[in-house]
Automatic annotation (TrEMBL):
GO terms for cellular component: chloroplast thylakoid; plastid-encoded plastid RNA polymerase complex. This is Ribulose-1,5 bisphosphate carboxylase/oxygenase large subunit N-methyltransferase, chloroplastic. It comes from the Eukaryota. InterPro entries: Rubisco_LSMT_subst-bd (IPR015353), Rubisco_LSMT_subst-bd_sf (IPR036464), SET_dom (IPR001214), SET_dom_sf (IPR046341), SETD3_SETD6_MTase (IPR050600). It comes from Morella rubra (Chinese bayberry).
Length: 475
């Protein structure tokens, strides 16, 4: 069954290394690691932390003392094998509208090089590589158990219909079905108690894999000579929210096996700004919804499937909105726009990518033909909007009315997220599994409603962009 799941490598662990067990234990209880009890202590300034490393450092022999002619190895190499903890520089973990997030605790001037804000050693991660040999830290699940095959979380049939997107609903339904089959196959009466306790009912299992899926980071790691594509659960780094214009990125520092979160080179950040990464590049909202349970009205990669023959002139459209570059790298040159003109956002970039266009010559030769094409495209958009059972205004009202009762649920979810990043991954997963009944009915209704609203807002923005285009176009 495992082979029919989305990420279906059977997972194995090279475990039973008592040292790893100790690290793991040390991390969850050590003074530097208790995010819940003393978050502020962990968030040290760059200066403070670099001056006083928080783990023992091996002192290599001084060059003149060495009898050997060989070059001494990189001292960082020897640090592996000592208890290391996560370090953070100039950031705070704060609760916001998208759950917990990471925020700058001071201004950051743009630098020519990326700057490190978090360092998380390999021992704190749970790593499942996509190829043999598998690495699996910490050793919490018996060899071969595929619990960390990542499957989507569940929604009821009615909720799936509320997406107002039959394709996405059917994909999610199919994934749920496979998850259920998977649970039935692996959680039968004969399995060891250790496994059984993890997910006594399928809802617990599905919830836990949903959490794992939405917090999993895919990266290429180099360990020694081995380069691996991995799926990782990385405490603290998994507190970063997504943005299509991120100010941070992940970097694997292979020499001492450390995941770094870095601020982009040349990036200015103000105290309090949210630090973000790009979870998925080039993906539409349905993919974000499937994997992370959220969507955006300004996803620059969203798509509208037009079926008519109408096309507008590409270069003219781009120049009206000061969009430059090739389609894969379109960007808005805001210095060319009037002060305060905030119309161009990710949705307009997406419109530039998705509207049918033609591109001979510098300007469209026949104004009336261009205006006719604009009208046809707008009409097709209007027809799409009319096919939805609700309007964007109605969705917005529904969302507003959901806001109040949702708060309690949200705090429950955040409580899980918080615990997750506070304790070891092992105890977190157990915790996630334990609190499921509390969260079962905290449906993703709001995210589902937002998803369909975002779809409509994107189509409406495309209609507006076409309107502005035909007003401003120069013939
Ligand atoms: C890796 S976690 C990020 C930390 C999370 N906010 C928390 O409270 O633990 C990913 C989850 O955060 C939320 N999230 C991240 N970026 C978001 C965004 N731009 N908009 C809405 N929700 C977002 C989604 O619920 C997603 O599944």
């Amino acid at each position: 069954m495992a082979s029919s799941l989305p990420l279906h490598q059977p997972t194995r662990c090279f475990f039973s290394n008592p040292k790893l067990k100790n690290f793991h234990h040390g991390w969850s209880q050590g003074p530097n690691c208790s995010f819940a009890s003393d978050a502020q202590n962990q968030i040290k300034s760059i200066k403070a932390t670099t001056d006083t490393p928080s783990y023992p450092i091996f002192q290599p022999p001084k060059a003149e003392e060495s009898l050997s002619e060989l070059d001494s190895a990189d001292p960082d190499f020897y640090k592996i094998g000592y208890v290391r903890s996560m370090r953070a520089y100039g950031i705070d973990f704060k609760e916001g509208p998208d759950g917990f997030g990471v925020h700058a605790s001071k201004d950051v001037e743009p630098l020519r090089r990326p700057r490190v804000v978090m360092e998380i050693p390999l021992e704190l991660m749970l790593t499942i590589s996509q190829k043999l040999p598998w690495m699996f830290f910490p050793d919490i699940i018996p060899v071969g158990h595929p619990i960390f095959d990542i499957i989507n979380s569940t929604n009821s049939e009615e909720e799936l219909l509320e997406l107002q997107d039959p394709n996405l609903a059917s994909t999610m339904r199919e994934q749920q079905h496979r998850a259920l089959e998977f649970w039935e196959k692996n959680w039968h009466s004969g399995v060891p108690l250790k496994i059984k306790r993890l997910a006594r009912d399928p809802e617990r299992f599905i919830w836990a894999v949903g959490i794992a899926q939405s917090r999993c980071i895919n990266m290429q790691l180099r360990i020694g000579a081995l380069v691996q594509d991995t799926n990782m659960l990385i405490p603290y780094a998994d507190m970063l929210n997504h943005s299509f214009k991120p100010n941070c990125f992940f970097h694997w520092r292979f020499k001492d096996r450390m995941l770094e979160v870095m601020i982009n080179a040349g990036q200015r950040i103000k105290k309090g700004d949210e630090m973000t990464v790009n979870y998925l590049s080039g993906q539409k909202n349905d993919m974000f919804m499937q994997r992370y349970g959220f969507s955006s009205s300004v996803n620059p990669w969203d798509v509208i499937h037009f079926s008519g023959n109408a096309c507008v002139h590409l270069d003219s459209f781009l120049s009206v909105f000061n969009i430059s570059g090739l389609p894969e790298e379109y960007y808005h040159n805001c210095r060319l726009s009037n002060d305060g003109d905030t119309f161009v956002d990710g949705a307009v970039i997406a419109a530039a990518r998705t509207i049918p266009t033609w591109s001979d010559g510098d300007v469209p030769p026949i104004p009336s033909m261009e205006r006719k094409a604009v009208r046809e495209l707008q009409e097709e958009c209007q027809q799409m909007l009319a096919r939805f059972p609700t309007t964007s205004e109605q969705d917005q009202k529904i969302l507003d009315s959901m806001l109040e009762p949702r708060r309690t649920h949200e705090s429950a979810i955040k409580c899980v997220a918080f615990t997750y990043s506070t304790f070891s991954i092992a105890s977190c997963l157990l915790h996630v599994l334990k609190v499921t009944p509390l969260l079962n009915d905290c449906s993703v209704n709001m995210d589902i409603c937002r998803y369909r609203l975002h779809r409509k807002l994107f189509i409406e923005k495309t209609i507006q962009a076409l309107e502005i285009y035909q007003e401003r176009i120069l013939f």
